[in-house]
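name: query_chain
kind: protein
chains: 1
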Amino acid sequence: MDEILRREIIRFIEPNIQSFHKKRLENLSSLRLVEILKRKNPYLFKAKNITTAFDLIKSLMDAHLSSQEEAIFGSFLEDLAIFICGRVYGGEKSSAEGIDIEFQKKGIKFIISVKSGPNWGNSQQIRRMIDNFNKAKRILGSRTRFSSITAVNGCCYGKDDNPDKGDYFKLCGQRFWEFISGDENLYIDIIEPLGHKAKQRNEKFMVEYSKVINKFTKDFSITYCNAEGSILWNKLVKVNSGKTN
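structure:
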């Protein structure tokens, strides 16, 4: 990959990674205590012998935020992959259901479903992806004259040393980034600009995170702990899993 394109990729990453941090902070600010109490498994935390309000709230918060951040960052990586593939091979965002990128090379049409990592779905979700691939192939096959249409599950990180899955190819980590860019080192080169001003942004996030932890711990203690300070697990389970009417 030439130096001009590398600079373009960096110029794309640095401002767009700000959006990730902004959404991450917005997600934190919009949280409500009852929401995280309803979304996570109270039985798990009881089984782990969590006995203090602070530890429970922190565990719930961290679990919730982790899953949210994966989704937000996954969208950013998808946009980055589309940008890179577009610049190198003229790839574009697909309008087909479940397909993220389309591009052609050497007479072959490639359709790509982008996922964050290799362990992204269960058998049913994988089956749905294959169905989307087959549907897209039928539609594109009736509109174009490509010698073949190849489906690819592109994973932004991780490894899979058996990429040929029969119905599609699964390209992970280095293989995926090289596939959409032609550069075997791109998977390493993008890591540095992803950290653009990360320290400052994370410090701002942690200030707000601490406020939310403290507030939620206080509110939880008032509502879900008894006078002696013990967690009222029965009350918590009712809020999480009890019938509403």
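note: Residues 109 and 179 are 13 Å apart (CA to CA).
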